[in-house]
Design brief:
alpha+beta, 8-stranded mixed sheet, 2 helices, 8 strands, globular
Amino acid sequence: MAKLYPYLLCKDARAQADFYIKSLGGEIESVQTYDEMPDPDPALEGRVMHLVLQAAGIRIFMADAASQEIEPGTNIDLTLEFTSVEEAEKAFDGLSEGGDIFMPFEKMFWGDYFGRFQDRYGVRWQISVSEE
């Protein structure tokens, strides 16, 4: 079983999150910046790598886009979060077949397994396993 979260790629994730909090209520649960990556890119200093927003009873993930132009329609990924690596690998392999893999599914520096791709129909996905 998986949980589904929208993942918004933003020009300014903090400002966008503040707008949603003002409009919907809620709070920012956590923020990680690109500075926290191994060998961070100085051009991304202080920018948001991952933000978790709880608003209107739902969880929304957000990040400042690091290397792509933000255009309406291409600024959202669907994130499936699994509790087992096996389930996540099966979903990643199946959904990414015939698509474009942006990040292979593997263990990441922050501790979770993660992969990102665009499926053959143009939908962008993130598959993750949380070790909570």
